[in-house]
Amino acid sequence: MSKSAMLTGANGQDGSYLAEFLLEKGYRVYGLIRRSSTVTTERIAHLIGRPDFELITGDVTDATGVHRVIQRLRPDEVYNLAAQSHVGDSFDVPSATFEVNAVGVLNLLETIRTESPHTRFYQASTSELFGNSPPPQDENTPFIPRSPYAVAKLAAHNLVHIYREGYGVFACAGILFNHESERRGEEFVTRKITKYLARLAVAMENNGGNPPHDWTKLALGNLDAKRDWSFVGDMVRGMWLMLQQDQPDDFVLASGESHSVREFLELAFKSLGVDYRDFVRIDPKFFRPAEVNYLCGDATKARQVLGWSPRVSFEELITRMVESDVARERDSHGLRCAS
Ligand code: GDD
Fold first, then answer.
1. What's the Rg (C-alpha) of the chain?
2. Which residues contact residue 295 at a Cβ distance below 8 angstroms, ignoring those fewer than 6 apart?
3. Ligand 1 environment, Cβ below 6 A
4. Ligand 1 pocket test: which of 189, 218, 230, 265 has the largest number of ligand atoms within 8 Å of its C-beta?
5. 3-class DSSP state for residue 83?
6. Which residues pair with 137 in a beta bridge?
């Protein structure tokens, strides 16, 4: 019999890649997504209608709903990817962030403990837990959270340990460093850059190779922050591997390479043959009240225990994101011109 998995946040960047990965492995996949008055399923539109993929309306903050769904499905695996995932926004909506990122996890773990103890649980922990603990960061590095987002994620991380050690739940935490793709939300810095670059590229194509004279600059915040960026397709493989082990544990997943936002800009703009400094302006509105300065992960444990390592390099990731956004921009520009 094929295995079953329930994914919260199934329509997010990570959820969409993980759903594809698990379906490919023969799983029956249930995707929990929040009710919304607008369409939020673009990333999984190609999966909807498959007999082995079912979408369920639900919200991790709704304890009774979570209870009902898990009691009905009793899935082999639950991957909790639902979150208020924007660190900057968590300063504006701290309570809502805490509710989803911490209380939501409690609802899932409590239901698994009481209703479906055989279910294996994956929690999306994060390198934001480390705050400004010096790099390289691994599973033993102290957590010093620097945002409401990270504090809520740390509460959830600790709950995973309590349910694992106290109740014997097979609960794993993946401490993932930044991971991106062409499906990344446009409010995150990498996609914000590649989307802007794509608009610029197409505008230049239509203006004799030059930027239009009234072209608007890209407003960004802190360009000196350093992040360890990977491709999300590599990360979902690691999530799955964690739940296939004999014992539940925590694992860092990271590339081991760190780059500043400025380096990301330099490389991305180089592909267009222009200098980012002519197109970027700094806007204080995008600085955070407290910043995480330097993340660089050490994934030795994942390499040794899971046999995991990333396959897509930083340069390939940028190329992939830029090419995808340029193709989309050309399409939508063609449509705009035709109408
Ligand atoms: N979003 C954003 N927008 N970030 C900016 C901007 C801007 O205009 N300008 C500079 N930055 C800087 C941020 O201050 C931060 O230092 C860095 O770019 C990356 O920001 P994000 O892309 O928003 O990601 P993040 O590192 O804060 O968080 C992501 O990675 C975490 C794992 O380390 C998210 O995916 C989190 O959910 C995840 O836990």
1. 20
2. 127, 130, 135, 137, 177, 178, 226, 227, 228, 258
3. 85, 87-88, 126-128, 177-178, 187-190, 192, 220-222, 225, 227, 261, 286, 288, 291, 295
4. 189
5. coil
6. 297
Would you state the CATH architecture of domain 4-180+231-253?
Answer: 3-Layer(aba) Sandwich (3.40)
Q: Which atom of ligand 1 is nearest to the CA of 86?
A: 37
Spatial distance between the Cα atoms of 19 and 9, rounded to a whole number of angstroms: 10
Give this prediction's pTM.
0.97
Residue carrying the six token digits 């993932």: 176
Q: What is the DSSP letter of 31?
A: E
- Compute CA 89 distance to the chain's CA centroid, rounded to the nearest angstrom: 15
Choosing from 97, 129, 178 the residue with most ligand 1 atoms within 8 A of its CB, the one to mutate for a pocket test is 178
Distance 118 CA to ligand 1 centre (A): 36
As beta bridge partners, residue 294 has 226
Ligand 1 atom 36: residue of nearest CA: 85
CATH topology of domain 189-225+258-294+311-338: UDP-galactose 4-epimerase; domain 1 (3.90.25)
Cα(99) to ligand 1 centroid in Å equals: 21
> 19 CA distance to ligand 1 centroid (A)?
24
User: Parallel, antiparallel, or unpaired for β 218-220 and 280-282?
Assistant: parallel
pLDDT, tens digit, 9 for 90 and up, residues 265-317 = 999 999 899 999 999 999 999 999 999 999 999 999 999 999 999 999 999 99
Place of tokens 């995150």: 188
Instruction: For residue range 85-111, list pLDDT tens digits in order.
Output: 999 999 999 999 999 999 999 999 999
State the distance from the centre of ligand 1 to the C-alpha of 64, rounded, in angstroms. Answer: 33
Active site residues: 126, 128, 149
Domain spans of the chain, in order of start: 4-180+231-253, 189-225+258-294+311-338
User: What is the separation of C-alpha 332 from the centre of its chain, rounded to a whole number of angstroms?
Assistant: 26
Distance 115 CA to ligand 1 centre (A): 37
Residue 318 confidence (pLDDT):
98
Q: Ligand 1, closest atom to CA 222?
A: 10
